[in-house]
Each structure stands twice: as structure tokens, then as C-alpha cells.
Amino acid sequence: MGLLRFLASAALAACIPKSVDALLAFPGAEGLGREAVGGRTGSVYHVTNLDDSGAGSFRDAVSQSNRIVVFDVGGTINITSRVVVSKNVYIAGQSAPGDGITVYGNGLSWSNADNAIVRYMRFRMGRGGDSGKDGITIAEGENMIFDHVSVSWGRDETFSVSGDVHNVTIQDSIVAQGLETHSCGGLIQTEYGVSLFRNLYIDNKTRNPKVKGMNDFQNNVIYNWGGGGGYIAGDSSGQSYANIINNYFVSGPSTTKTAFTRGNENFHGYVSDNYYDSDKDGQLNGTPLCVKASCYGGMDIVSEPFAYPGPERLMTAPEALEHVLRSAGTSFPSRDSVDAYLVDEVRSYGTKGQLISDETKAPMNGPGYIAGGTKPADADGDGIPDEWERANGLNPNDASDAMKISSSGYANIEVYLNSLVPSS
Ligand SMILES: *[C@@H]1O[C@H](CO)[C@@H](O)[C@H](O)[C@H]1NC(C)=O
Ligand SMILES: *[C@@H]1O[C@H](CO)[C@@H](O)[C@H](O)[C@H]1NC(C)=O
Ligand SMILES: *[C@H]1O[C@H](CO)[C@@H](O)[C@H](O)[C@H]1NC(C)=O
């Protein structure tokens, strides 16, 4: 694609507000992927077992379009081959009983899975996954939002958005421990936009992330990147237009390079109050980076922010760090042992942290135990518990009300799913 075409479309995305009535994917959805519609006009699919495939499995659930996927069971779903997600699928991890859901053993593709909504899900690839593949791959498609997702142990990249991709948001998520020898956080390179807000990038040797194209990077925390570097600014002859605002970079034991590297005159960055704590002294005592190309890996620093749809409530970098450590990743109903371990590493502020090559060995010892729990009573089997139906004027014996659109614009089951978790 030519530069002019890119500039024109970037300007379009930046300047033309979306229609005022467009509904957010869920309250608290932000950034370029915030209007993904998920399965709103489709039907409810219940995941009823932890099997790798077959009726009632997660793989079967996401294999068809126009679904809101709810979980009647909690626990670890072990997948052998990769899972490919269809268009217009909302995966509602917050519906699962017990400790929620972990998908372990291989990676997933959302390529061309337009209008995806994914909330409160753990995706842990691991050594058993396909060599040369990512934890999560998006190579094409538009309008996708990932919220409170935990992704780890990619064999190539851990979470990669690269190619002809439009309007993706990754928010309040953890991208962790790309496996050695590649050990990458992820390529985030697309000419049509990825918003990254309030995420934790941790324990990747490099690409935390590597950014190219149109990108909005705000309130993220980056910890213990390795010798490949933290934020990799383009390193390319392609043009990039990025906001880099109020992020916190903290060096860890594996860190040997400065926070920003490999920028050049093609990478145009608006930068503001990005903190860097480089001394590994066990205290959080970072200070804002200087607003000069020399502090930002040699990128072209621009004076006005790009007009991308930013976070509703921009935090300072220190506030963002506290927020991310408190709630990023699959923090509802509670963090699993992997995320708890990672957050503890960050809280050491420089003294703990390591790159790993085999998640089944110490220190991680696998994906941990995820309790199954019991699903609440749901007489009509529509995915909304009886108690909630009664309290909210629905009929617990009428399965058709789940997908009816309420006055809020959301399907009733979405109103229920939204009510389970905080909206910011
Ligand atoms: C992406 O979002 C922008 C506005 O934020 C919109 O103008 C554009 O049409 C969207 N692109 C696609 C492919 O949906
Ligand atoms: C998946 O594998 C883990 C160990 O890696 C095991 O603890 C868990 O029980 C398995 N889950 C199922 C549903 O078999
Ligand atoms: C993090 O990501 C990089 C680049 O993808 C990869 O080389 C590395 O092995 C990952 N993990 C660590 C701990 O380095």
C-alpha cells in the first residue's frame, strides 16, 4: 500500500468520529476496537465440557459465527491443535464458574474473525504448541477487542497483530513469557490501527512489543524485557504513526537494553510522560524519559498527538502501574498462579524475573490448577441464571429472552455478562 493511501486512511480514522449511537462492545470498551459487536445478533452457545473437540467443547463453540459463548464449566481446556475462531464471536470467560477458564497447549488464530469480543480468558500456549506459531495470531480482519486476557508462552510471538488488520484493541491484559529461544512479546504492525491500553508486557527477550504502522500505546507497563529490547520502534522503512503516552518501563534481571530502541526517521511518535526505572534496586523510582529522539531510540518525535480514540480516563504512569498490577489479565474471579507469579515479579522492581524456555519446568511448573466450580441454576438453559432473571424482570422459564435486545442496546445476556465484572 502506498504512503498516501495510508496517510489518507489514517486521517480518516483519526478525524471522522464514529456515529454517535454506535454501541460499545461492552461498557469500558476503548480504543480502535471498541465497537466490535461480537455475537449480538446470533445465539448463545454453552461450553459444557473441557474436551479438546466435539459437541459442547470450546473448539466447537468458536467454530461458527454469530455466537455468544458462555461456559457452564470452569477449568483447563487442553488443546492439541490450534483453535481457529470465526467471525462475530463473543467469548465471555467471565461466565465460567470456579476459577474461570485456561486454554492450554497450543495457540489460537483470530485472523479474519471480524467483530471479536474476548473477555477474561487465559491462553497459555507452551512447548507442546506448534513450532514457529504464536500464542495468538491476527493476520487479517477488523474490529476486535481483547479485554482482561492473559496470554503466555508463545513459541514464536506471544500476541501478534500483523498484516491487513483494522481497528483492534488489547486492553487490561497480560502478555507474558514468550518462550526462548524466540521469546517475543509480539509484533504489533498494521497500517490500520491497534490500541494497547493498560497491558503488562513481561519477561520477553524482545518485541515488548515491536510496533509499526498506526498504534496507540497508553498506560502500559513493561517489565524485564531482555537483550532484544523493550519497545521496538519500527526498525523499518515503512511509516509509523504512534502515540506513546504515560507508560511505565521497569528493568528486570534480564534487561540489558534501554526501554526504546531501533527507531528511525520513518517512525513518528508523540511521546509524553513515559517513566523508566532502570536501576533494578527493588524500589519503584522511575522518572520520565527526556522528550528527545535520544531517549526514544532515535524515532521522529512529533509535537501533537495523533487523534486516535484514547482511553476514557488517562492515568499517570505511576497510577497506571498500580492499576495494571491490581487488575490486568484474567483478574476475575481471581488471578491464576501464573499471573500471580508474574505480578509478584514486577513488584520486586528489578530483582525478580527471568526468561523461560519450558513452562513445564521451574519456576512456572505448568499452567497451575483451575478449579471447576458449579454453574448457577438456569432452568431455561439460556445462559442467564434464574436468580438474575428474576431480579431483572426476565422470565427464568423463557429461553428466548437471552438474545432479545434490551433498551440499552445490548442483548439481555450481554447485560448479565456486563454485570459480572467491573466496567473499568
Ligand atoms: C476503523 O475505525 C475508524 C474510526 O475509529 C473508522 O473510521 C473505520 O471505518 C474503521 N475501519 C474499519 C475497517 O472498520
Ligand atoms: C489439562 O492438563 C493439565 C496439566 O497440564 C491437567 O492438570 C488438567 O487436568 C488437564 N485438563 C483436562 C480437562 O484434562
Ligand atoms: C520474549 O519475546 C522474544 C521475542 O519474541 C523471544 O525471543 C523471547 O524468547 C521471549 N521470552 C523471553 C523470556 O525472552
From TrEMBL:
Keywords in alphabetical order: Glycoprotein, Metal-binding, Signal
A GO molecular-function annotation: metal ion binding
SUPFAM superfamilies: Pectin lyase-like (SSF51126)
InterPro entries referenced in this protein's UniProt entry, alphabetically: Pectin_lyas_fold, Pectin_lyase_fold/virulence, Polysaccharide_Lyase_1
Keyword Signal: yes
Coiled-coil regions listed in the entry: none
Signal sequence segment: 1-22
Name assigned to this protein: Pectate lyase C
Source lineage: Eukaryota, Fungi, Dikarya, Ascomycota, Pezizomycotina
